[in-house]
Amino acid sequence: MSRKNNVTDFVYAALFAALIAVLGLVAIPLPISPVPVTGQSLAIMLAGSILTVRQAAYSVLTFLLLGAVGVPVFAGMTGGIGIIVGPRGGYLLGFLAGAIVIALLKGQSNNKWRLALVNVLGGIIIVYTFGVLWLGFVTGMGLEKAFTVGALPYIPGDLFKAFVATVVGTAVNRQLQKAGSR
Predict the structure, then answer these.
(1) Tell me: the pLDDT tens digits for 140-152?
(2) Which of 44, 55, 79, 100 could potentially form a cystine with 12 if both were Cys, beta carbons 3.0 to 4.6 Å apart?
């Protein structure tokens, strides 16, 4: 791998780690759930939609490591390992898996229908699977209750985020292909 590719990977990783953090600044708590509504899932879908697998993984790992050491990058300007091992931790770890799945499955084409499908798969189904399983485990509320409070209320908003990520990702990828960069 060339030095240019390493620098490009780290620059994109830093930019998208910052985007994930910024989209978590506004966290809207729901009275029925310990998981707030944020724009971070949109950032995860954008990372997977636009970046290579390596870049997407680096961006989410950077975000997670910063948060784990206490930098307030998680939803609502929180940080620390306690957030990762708490009720929201599964969603955070799901962010990593989701971004990687999106980047892997989008392929080299810029097909909007394929991108929409992988955004739903990686950005919603994968993230929710990690999140709901972890939420149920940590709180002891059981899977049905964890799904009811940790996934169900978020589905409409996340479907909208998948639509936005698909539209933006397709447009950005088109421009990146024209510029011959990546």
Answers:
(1) 999 999 999 999 9
(2) 55
Matching residue, tokens 């879908």? 45
Single out the residue of 45, 60, 51 nearest to residue 123, CA to CA. 45
Say if residues 83 and 9 touch (Cβ distance below 8 Å).
no
The yes/no answer on whether domain 3-179 falls in CATH 2.160.20.80 is no
- Rounded CA-CA distance 45/60 in Å is 11
The pTM (predicted TM-score) of the whole model is 0.94
Which tokens sit at 57? 């993984």
Domain ranges of the chain: 3-179
- Beta bridge partners, 78, equal 74
